[in-house]
């Protein structure tokens, strides 16, 4: 089968581009040194996942990433029994593999998970650093190098969900935000090969749209979204059309909010694209 | 077994009729070039599915279509273990097949799916382009040519559902609408062999009914519905009877709304059909 | 095993009695000719099921009937894996059998089904006429002669249920109602062997009860219910007693509504039956 | 194994005592003659189950009784696949056995069942008299003698439950109530061997408690409960003590309602029993 | 395996201490004589379980006890199919064992069970005394000596739960309460070896706390709780400390209610224990 | 497999540091002597888990710890059947192992468990000390030394959850709180090697934050959280930065509450750390 095992990294990977914006690298390294779990907060697409990929490379660790959701069961994390020719056998889940191998286990959008997930995390997230596998009767001691990292977006107001205080207080926490204008323009140029002038224009446009506020948009445009737009512009597409396809349409379904974004777009990119009346594709 | 595997396309298919109405083809090709996922919005029966079938033919890709619904599980998309003579074996789902083969995977009405579905999409819908198969421990890198396409109808006001911003911002998006009158008449003639004069009459009737608005109809009549009507008229059925069977009855159960539609029908098709009082079949 | 396979019809069946009341037969035949799915609306017991049995005989097709309900799963329609001596094997459900054999598949009370059911219907209900079997990876092209028919009763006001516009607009639709008095009397005489005079009396009584309206009865008496009553009268039972057992008691549990019905009964059938005070059996 | 198969009745049973109170026996026989299903309404413990046992004996049919509840699945009624040495095999449920053998299938408290249950009943409860077994692909024609009987208590006001009109209108219905005083005393004497004078006293007491009404008691005392009381009195227990143990305590947990019942008891049975203050056993 | 089968009682047990407080023993024996099921009501820890253990010894019957809860399934009571080397085999549950062996089956806190549980009880709780095993097709006639006993605490006001009248009216019912002061002191001395003076003090204290009423405590202190306290005092612990650990802390989390209890404690046990301010262990 | 069985403790462990703060050790030993179960209440991170680890070492018992949650099933505690080469076999859960081996079973955050869990605890938590295994038909008598310990945080106001009085009254209960300042400073110094002066500063800061109250913080900072902060300070991190990463960010997502905490931090640690404006990592 032509597939790689999760985290097996059989060959050297090119180093990922990561632009540090504070002391997040040092704090992560201290947490690692003391075996403390790390909690990263921040909005969509601001670089949380990229940061953790970067730290895994820097520390020389395998990385197991699990995107959390409502139906993720403890078994999805820890493992389960499967039926083979000789009866049931146990198959480790990604968390268990990370515990055995001393890897980083990253739970993305952890507050989307059901609360029972946080419970298997508790004995891993204090001085015990153990993972009880109730289904097999094992109790794993985490290998040196194991690190638990979780993230969520505090901007989503989910009254029913959230980490319990008894979970939160186990973590070292850091808060991410969008990069400053110069850094963001640098990132965009690196990822899209767009020229500096138009990258700056795009960052200014992005920040203008970010000021529209919550009553217009569910969430502000991310750095990732600006990179998408930059790629289409660098490929020769009309900037207004690129902004409609990568910014106005993905951000909202509301015609008035789309119009407000396109007004801002027209202020930043003067030459008009032909916006069709019947079928809008930008 | 006399059935074709999904997407196996063993023999050349006749080219599908598709009438482009803007730059949607070019935008789709750019998204494909950069490996970006595509989101298509638009009302029922306006040609979204046909467009994607057309693009799959044009790009020479296999197409896997999945109609989303509340009970679609991640396993339905990704695959599952089955029990065979020698124990369990793994069977790929349509998304996994598309990822392995470099095909297009189209998730129709994606907001009908549970939110956990969108989570397997995240690592496929950013620069990583990977599909972690938690149940087998594999992590697939998408083959070149793989493309993720999703669609939904923004006209359905579903307060509980909707794409999360962290999902939406990963997509290049385009918005479809009904074609203009000349294009729609052309499509109807092509699909039903109805004469141009009556096709034009039918389009005018369709647009008149579309102006009835939301307090009368849950959704406006689609191009597909006009094609149905045209086929029955072209087969010799009385136009009023065809309009009742293919338009008034499918659009609504409300007698007053049905009467409003039939009033409009009578304005466009003067010769009367015998509408029975006791059992209405139009 | 002394049982017939669904729809196998191994021997000629006597022709079912069906009294057409409009052009429903012709419309059904046109829909069949164009491979369009058919939607039949109408109240309880007005002859929808009988009509479809009749059309299946007339067109020489096998008929698969599925009564829909809340817990009907897609697997119940499409099929499922069972475990045999050599591991799992696939067993077709009734929809899949109809698709393979070119038969009629009739989903009775389709709005009782969960919405995920309607989704497997979509690719069968447009020009594609395909049934993707996600569990096996097959994609079936419907055999010639396959026809999808669904029905529901628009009189049930179910706010949570209903067909989505994207489903409705795929169907040719027709609306059934109770037959006119002469036809209904004819049907009753044919089915119960009651004499014409008392059959006419019974139809007049039925129509009088139908005028009681919704605040008295959840649903008006059906033709089927009048046939039941007629059979007991023809068998020699006192008409008032037959009307209480087959009409007043089945229609409602409310004493006042039962009394209102029995008042109408007494107006139509003058000779008194002995209604007991302590235990009412009519 | 020292157990009888359901309904196998290997040896003649003594005839059950049943005291008819109207023409219910004749109506049941007519419904049987025409193959019509029967619906019996009535309060707790008024003799519905005993009546059906009586009719099964009288008609010489096996009887399958199923007590319905929220979690009763269609498989519980129809059957299911079990896993044996050679893979799965099918095991009939009680409804399927009754259909094959021409027996009576009695669904007690049918409105407690989920609505999907009623759906397997529909094709059995009209002229088709068929039972489709979707899991095996069979379609059983009911053997001659098969009869479907259902019951419920209309006094329970369950807003969420109830039979749909499309179900109700398939049944011949009859309504049971408590027997009149002379009949009830006769039944009590027969079942408990209590002397006629005290049986009459007990019936008078029962009817007095039945007049307490719904704001005091959830449901009035049944004939069964009076038989219980009579047996303890006939065995020599003080009547007041027997009435508290078999009537006041089972009917309610409310001290005021218990006191109201005991006041009535003292009016009918003058000699006092020693009611203890600390632990009341009556 | 060093474990006893439920109810197998392979060797004579020492007779359990039980202090009768009324005619409960005689009523239970009458119910047994007539094969009637028994319902016992009463608050937490007043001796219901001990009474039934006592009656099982007295009548020479095995006892199967099942603690009921929300997730107890019918299969937990009746039995289920397990998979062995030769396919599935049936394993009796505790209710089925009691029915086969003529034992007592005691369902503790029966209103915690789902209502479907009560349904398997119905045919066992009337004259039929049968247990239909739908999964195997058996219908068991209860062996002589089988007795069904259920209990609940009427003090819990659970609006959603409760026995249906059709269930309640099948039982002979008795109501338990706390013993009178002399009896309770006797029980405490017997179970804890505390001296009579301090046992009397403890009973007086318990009754004083019982008068605090419902707005202070969810439920009054049980005899069992007084025994716990007595054991620690008899072992030499300061009475105030024992009362805090066994009475104030278990009864409530509310500081004001704990303080109210400790005020009463100090009135009954004059010599002060050192109550720490920082960590209260009493 | 390189893992230890739960509780097998194959080699001597270094003695855990535990600072007693009252007579909790003596009370625990008395409860153990009488076989009484123990309930420990207290806020997050105040030392409950450490205390139980300490007592297990002191009493020379194995310790089985189960973190409770909504989806913990009885089978997770008691055991379940697995399928092996020769059919199903039974595997003990942690509670069953503790019962067989005479170990301590500790259920952490027991009110998070579903109520059915508490039911398997009842016969273990009174004089019977038995564990009925309904799935196997066994009834285990707890080995000498078995001890049941549960804990929860009474500060979480969960209206839907909570121990039933019939459960609570079976336990000897003790209440934990944060240690006094001298003890807490001693614990911090022992666990982090921070110097006494700054440990005292940190305890003063922690107590100041604890006075912010519930309208600012969901729960006050725990001793564990202060230890985390102390470790980073002892490792050379700026105290303000350490306090933001280990205290302000983990305690809350609210900017105003974070600012309030940081104001208090600045009052206790005068030298300023460079707090970045764009990305806060503290």
From TrEMBL, chains A, B, C, D, E, F:
**Database matches in Pfam families:** AAA_5 (PF07728), CbbQ_C (PF08406)
Q: CbbQ/NirQ/NorQ C-terminal domain location, by residue?
A: 184-267
- Coiled coil (UniProt feature): none
Protein name (database record)? Denitrification regulatory protein NirQ
* Superkingdom field: Bacteria
User: What keyword terms does UniProt attach to this protein?
Assistant: ATP-binding, Nucleotide-binding
Give the lineage: Bacteria, Pseudomonadati, Pseudomonadota, Gammaproteobacteria, Pseudomonadales
Name all ATPase dynein-related AAA domain ranges.
37-171
- PANTHER family, A to Z: DENITRIFICATION REGULATORY PROTEIN NIRQ, MOXR FAMILY PROTEIN
The Swiss-Prot or TrEMBL record describes its family as follows: Belongs to the CbbQ/NirQ/NorQ/GpvN family.
The species this protein was found in: Halopseudomonas pertucinogena
